Protein backbone atom coordinates (compact mmCIF):
# COMPACT_ATOMS: atom_id res chain seq x y z
CA UNK A 1 0.00 0.00 0.00
CA UNK A 2 1.65 3.22 -1.18
CA UNK A 3 -0.97 5.60 0.27
CA UNK A 4 0.43 7.74 3.13
CA UNK A 5 -1.30 7.24 6.46
CA UNK A 6 -2.97 9.63 8.89
CA UNK A 7 -4.04 13.24 8.56
CA UNK A 8 -1.03 14.25 6.46
CA UNK A 9 -1.78 11.42 4.03
CA UNK A 10 -5.43 12.41 3.79
CA UNK A 11 -4.48 16.03 3.09
CA UNK A 12 -1.77 15.02 0.60
CA UNK A 13 -4.29 12.95 -1.34
CA UNK A 14 -6.83 15.79 -1.44
CA UNK A 15 -7.25 18.25 -4.31
CA UNK A 16 -7.60 21.25 -1.94
CA UNK A 17 -7.52 21.84 1.82
CA UNK A 18 -10.04 24.28 3.31
CA UNK A 19 -9.63 24.98 7.00
CA UNK A 20 -9.02 27.36 9.84
CA UNK A 21 -5.64 28.72 10.87
CA UNK A 22 -4.76 25.64 12.90
CA UNK A 23 -2.39 22.71 13.17
CA UNK A 24 -4.09 20.86 10.27
CA UNK A 25 -3.62 23.91 8.01
CA UNK A 26 0.07 24.09 8.85
CA UNK A 27 0.33 20.32 8.37
CA UNK A 28 -1.24 20.83 4.94
CA UNK A 29 1.60 23.23 4.19
CA UNK A 30 4.01 20.28 4.30
CA UNK A 31 2.20 18.79 1.28
CA UNK A 32 1.68 20.04 -2.27
CA UNK A 33 -2.07 20.34 -1.67
CA UNK A 34 -3.43 23.87 -2.28
CA UNK A 35 -4.68 25.59 0.88
CA UNK A 36 -7.63 27.91 1.46
CA UNK A 37 -6.95 29.20 4.98
CA UNK A 38 -9.74 30.77 7.03
CA UNK A 39 -8.58 33.50 9.41
CA UNK A 40 -10.42 35.19 12.26
CA UNK A 41 -8.44 36.65 15.18
CA UNK A 42 -5.14 36.44 13.27
CA UNK A 43 -4.39 37.87 9.84
CA UNK A 44 -3.02 35.70 7.03
CA UNK A 45 0.04 37.89 6.55
CA UNK A 46 1.20 36.96 10.07
CA UNK A 47 0.22 33.29 9.96
CA UNK A 48 1.17 32.44 6.40
CA UNK A 49 2.51 28.87 6.38
CA UNK A 50 6.28 29.00 6.56
CA UNK A 51 8.15 28.14 3.34
CA UNK A 52 4.86 27.72 1.47
CA UNK A 53 4.65 28.26 -2.28
CA UNK A 54 2.51 31.42 -2.53
CA UNK A 55 0.67 30.02 -5.54
CA UNK A 56 -0.71 27.20 -3.39
CA UNK A 57 -2.08 29.32 -0.55
CA UNK A 58 -4.95 31.79 -0.22
CA UNK A 59 -5.96 33.30 3.08
CA UNK A 60 -9.53 34.48 3.56
CA UNK A 61 -10.50 36.65 6.50
CA UNK A 62 -13.80 36.65 8.37
CA UNK A 63 -16.22 39.37 7.32
CA UNK A 64 -16.20 41.28 10.62
CA UNK A 65 -14.85 44.71 11.46
CA UNK A 66 -12.65 43.34 14.22
CA UNK A 67 -10.83 40.69 12.14
CA UNK A 68 -7.24 40.36 13.26
CA UNK A 69 -7.98 41.49 16.82
CA UNK A 70 -5.17 39.27 18.11
CA UNK A 71 -2.64 41.69 16.64
CA UNK A 72 -4.07 44.66 18.52
CA UNK A 73 -3.37 43.11 21.92
CA UNK A 74 -0.12 43.27 23.87
CA UNK A 75 1.54 39.87 24.18
CA UNK A 76 1.07 37.42 25.65
CA UNK A 77 -2.46 37.25 24.26
CA UNK A 78 -4.74 34.98 26.27
CA UNK A 79 -8.27 36.10 25.45
CA UNK A 80 -10.80 33.60 24.15
CA UNK A 81 -13.98 35.66 23.94
CA UNK A 82 -14.95 38.36 21.50
CA UNK A 83 -13.99 41.81 22.77
CA UNK A 84 -16.64 43.47 20.62
CA UNK A 85 -19.62 41.36 21.72
CA UNK A 86 -18.81 40.07 25.19
CA UNK A 87 -21.80 37.72 25.16
CA UNK A 88 -20.70 35.95 21.99
CA UNK A 89 -17.81 33.55 21.68
CA UNK A 90 -16.00 33.53 18.38
CA UNK A 91 -18.70 35.21 16.28
CA UNK A 92 -16.07 35.67 13.59
CA UNK A 93 -15.95 31.90 13.05
CA UNK A 94 -19.37 32.02 11.38
CA UNK A 95 -18.68 35.27 9.50
CA UNK A 96 -17.15 33.93 6.29
CA UNK A 97 -18.60 34.50 2.86
CA UNK A 98 -19.24 30.91 1.76
CA UNK A 99 -19.34 31.96 -1.89
CA UNK A 100 -15.87 33.51 -1.60
CA UNK A 101 -14.49 30.34 0.01
CA UNK A 102 -16.07 28.22 -2.73
CA UNK A 103 -14.77 30.46 -5.53
CA UNK A 104 -11.22 30.45 -4.18
CA UNK A 105 -11.25 26.67 -3.75
CA UNK A 106 -12.65 26.29 -7.26
CA UNK A 107 -9.70 28.31 -8.65
CA UNK A 108 -7.39 25.56 -7.36
CA UNK A 109 -9.57 22.86 -8.93
CA UNK A 110 -9.63 24.23 -12.46
Q: How would you describe what is shown here?
A:
The protein is an alpha/beta fold. Helix content is 26%, strand content 13%. The chain contains four helices and three strands; from the N terminus they run αβαβαβα. The protein has helices at 6-12, 23-28, 44-47, 98-109, and strands at 17-20, 35-39, 57-61. The protein has a three-stranded parallel sheet with strand order 1-2-3. α3 links the parallel β2 and β3. The protein is globular and about 40 Å long. The two termini are 29 Å apart. The mean pLDDT is 86.
This entry's quaternary arrangement is single chain
Specify the structural class: alpha/beta
Strand order of the largest sheet: 1-2-3
Average residue-wise pLDDT: 86
Series of secondary-structure elements, N-terminal to C-terminal: HEHEHEH
Characterize the biggest β-sheet: 3 strands, parallel
Our count of helices gives 4
Strand content: 5-15%
Q: Outline, from the CA principal axes? A: globular
Low-pLDDT runs of 5+ residues are none
Total number of strands: 3
C-alpha-based Rg, rounded: 15 Å
What is the terminal-to-terminal distance?
Answer: 29 Å
Helix content: 25-40%
Amino acid sequence: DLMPKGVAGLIASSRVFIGADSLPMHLAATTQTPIVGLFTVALPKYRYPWKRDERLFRGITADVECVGCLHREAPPVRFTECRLDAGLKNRCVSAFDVNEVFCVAKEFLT
